[in-house]
Structure formats: C-alpha cells, structure tokens
Write a structure and sequence with these properties.
This protein is of the alpha+beta class and 210 residues long. It is built from six helices and six strands. The protein has one domain: Nuclear Transport Factor 2, Chain: A (Roll). Strand 4 and strand 5 form a beta hairpin. The longest helix has 12 residues.
Length: 210
C-alpha cells in the first residue's frame, strides 16, 4: 500500500460488548492525546440498515465515518455479495501510481468477515449487518501518524470504531471493531478539485492505525 501504519501489537481489535452512547462532539479540534471524537445525534438503526452512499464532501472526517459504517452495513435479503462488493468498490478510487491495487480491497473487505462463499451461506439465514460509527480519530490524533506522517498533503488517515450488529433469522450478535480509512483530498494533485475520495481502508488486525 502507499502508506503503511503498523499498529502496536498490544492493541485490542474488538470488544465483545457495545460502548455506551456518546455525547455530541464539540466544535473544536480534538488534541492528539485526547479522547476520540464522539459522534452527535441519536442513532436511527432502521435508516442505517439502508445501503450507504457516500456524498461528495471535503470533510474527510465525515467521509471516513460514512465509509466505515457503510462497509459494515449490508442485507443478504436484498443484496447479493456482488452487489455489496460493487458498492464498496465504487468508493475505492485507484491512484495513478498503482499503490492501492484492488487486491488490497479484496483482502481488506474479506477481513470484515465476508467472502463470496460465506455470503451465500449467510443468505440462506437471512443475514444482515448494521454498522454504527461510535468514535473517530484522524491524522495527528493517531500515534502512528505522528510517527509516520502520510507522504503528501491532502492524504488523511482516520480510524473509526464501529459498533456492528450481525443478525440472522435465529441469532443476534453485537460487537465493536476498528477500521482505518484512507482519504485523499485537495490540495493533493491526485485528488478531485472539490471533494475527498476514499483510496483505501484497513480491516485486517495488523494494519489498523492507532
């Protein structure tokens, strides 16, 4: 990948219990050592279960949150694996230098626990997944970014903690998991002139940026 942020080996990847509801975030910029930014508003789970579509924006933090919850939101009752993968693929903007190939996308998407084979089985169980972003840290709020800054201006790194609800016709499981989203924004010469794009994400445990 174009920028590697190896996470500390002692960091936990998931927690078995959901976090408590978060308060509204302040308008100020969080410090590098402060708590992750909280996400405002009440969660409408029914709305979050709908397929996510990323709207053009220069707000890389908001885009990271939408991408993170979108990657962890799908419903096998209304979508095939190809549909889910194609949606996520449409968000992944390839860079001219070939540093974020689609092979990385396949690996990282499968790291969320979904493959073409498993999805077929999940479909028989009416499986669905809903992701709700709980908190987000970006750029210098992340210790690894302080140690290894991105190689060009406009490339941003955000790690989002997502509460995931996995349901089938018989079971329901809730857990929290981190996902790191890479975003390319102006003034990067490889970015669109007026908005940010997602150029990668990490769901594999040893690639999460903390």
């Amino acid at each position: 990948m174009f920028w590697r942020g190896d996470r500390p080996g002692t960091s936990s990847v998931t927690s078995p219990t959901p976090s408590t509801p978060l308060a509204s975030a302040s308008s100020g910029t969080p410090s590098a050592t402060g708590a992750p930014s909280a996400l405002p508003g009440e969660t409408n789970v029914a709305a979050l279960a709908s397929p996510v579509d990323l709207s053009p924006t220069r707000d890389f933090r908001a885009l990271a949150v939408e991408a993170a919850r979108g990657i962890y939101t799908w419903d096998s009752r209304s979508s095939s694996y190809s549909d889910v993968y194609a949606r996520v693929r449409s968000w992944w903007e390839l860079l001219p230098d070939g540093s974020n190939p689609l092979s990385v996308l396949v690996k990282e998407f499968e790291a969320t626990g979904v493959t073409a084979t498993s999805f077929a089985s999940l479909g028989q169980q009416a499986a669905r997944r809903t992701g709700t972003a709980q908190s987000v840290r970006c750029d210098l709020e992340l210790a690894k970014v302080q140690e290894f800054p991105p190689p060009w201006a406009g490339l941003h790194v955000c790690t989002v903690i997502v509460q995931v609800v996995d349901e089938t016709s018989r079971d329901r499981n809730t857990y929290s998991t981190p996902i790191t989203v890479m975003l390319n924004c102006p003034p990067a010469v490889t970015a669109p002139a007026d908005h940010c794009v997602m150029v990668g994400f990490y769901a594999t445990a040893d690639r999460i940026v903390y």
